[in-house]
Amino acid sequence: MIYFDNAATSWPKPPGVAEAMTHFLDKVGANPGRAAHRRAVESGRIVYGAREAVAELFGAPDPLRVVFGLNVTEALNLALRGLLRPGDHVVTSSMEHNSMMRPLRALEGGGVQVTVVGCSPQGVLDPADVEAAIRPDTKLVALNHASNVVGTLLPVAEVGALCRERNVLLLVDAAQTGGAYPIDVQADQIDLLGFTGHKSLGGPMGTGGLIVGQRVDETQLEPLMRGGTGSRSEHEVQPDFLPDMCESGTPNVVGLAGLQVGVRWVLERGVEAIRAHEVALAQALINGLRAIPSAGSGQRPGVTVYGTLDAELQTATVSFNIVGMAPSEVGLRLDDEYGIMCRVGLHCAPTAHKTIGTFPDGTVRFGLSAFNTLDEVGAALIAVGRLAQEAR
Amino acid sequence: MTSGEYAVILVYSTSYAIRAEKVLLKAGIQSKMIPVPRHLGSNCGVCVRIERADKEAARQALEAVGVEIDGVHDI
Known about the structure:
The complex is a heterodimer.
Chain A: E1 2-3, H1 17-28, H2 38-57, E2 66-69, H3 72-83, E3 89-93, H4 98-109, E4 113-117, H5 127-133, E5 138-144, H6 156-165, E6 169-173, E7 192-196, E8 208-212, H7 253-269, H8 271-290, E9 303-305, E10 317-322, H9 327-338, E11 340-341, E12 343-345, H10 350-356, E13 363-367, H11 374-390
Parallel strand pairs in A: 1-11, 3-4, 3-5, 5-6, 6-7
Antiparallel strand pairs in A: 2-8, 7-8, 9-10, 10-13, 12-13
Chain B: E1 6-10, H1 14-26, E2 31-35, E3 46-51, H2 55-64, E4 71-74
Antiparallel strand pairs in B: 1-3, 1-4, 2-3
């Protein structure tokens, strides 16, 4: 059994994640920040520990500017809906996931102006094209760090530098890179970083958040929800400070207990080491897929691989198609006949598929993680090779 | 050893209280998170209790790292 669907959610989780969650449920269990008894304080410490771990991983100077939520989708919604007002201009790319594109399209209906900068068929974004799209009324540049469809990395640090020059904020969606590729919000000049806990950070689903940089005036950030925060309880108006203003209601402490352990595992192993392992896996996979011959002739390639074909320029997410076989059939047969789990079709990013030329059929996507091995890549290549021989 | 004479540091939220507790621990100042005494209001449900004698040292340690304080009161 081979799990290659890590771009959707990672599995397995690092050792200790499940135990930390069980420990919270069995031994702590209290609501953080709603009382001062010992277990409420312990619960609060777990949440704070998760903030510290996330801040450390991403080079954020202030753990209290780490706002927790359900996932990166909530984080992007908070940043976009919280900051953009009618008349504001925002620049984004053609490689975005719907978690970015759908809130932007909805805001567009309300008077926000959206420019989508095109990327190459390999998913590559030229920072000069972003610069050319920035106008005097541009408030925000919003980009994913790496495509969830083909893994291509976007040049966020270069864009970060030019955003500072032009006095524009930069929002980065790190769903595909957080924990798998080095990110330093200060060095990369990222003002808002959306992250999700359940992918390369090794945490459970239902964890994620937004890091709000010092250049963002939180008094201009409209919360998605309002409610109880355990602070300013005598007031009927929402607190105006981070993180409370954006964290109404009882948080997912059981999830954050797991997230903290996942992030600590990433820090201990080192993002650079994880990245090196994933580059090796991805390059072996790309090279192996490109070497698979087509049925019959053996001369033409039997597999089309998308993206830059260079593992250094992408995450360990590789998209491909077997020539003459629909992605849906490939996915079904990989699961049924070879025990290989992956995702096929359109990956919640229609514009990205149009950019790389795979709309509307989509691709077969292998999303690898730090826990996959070269042996698994080898076994998957044999399976894809066999299917390619049966394609017409 | 405690004198039995305490002061409390009021902060804006539980997150700030936990941060304050960590900063004070590092500075060698004993502290404990307790419910905010009713007569001091309830900006946040918890506050940080310290020895009265440590008030100035605590204030300095917290200000040095930018932990915002909502007030320091003898109790």
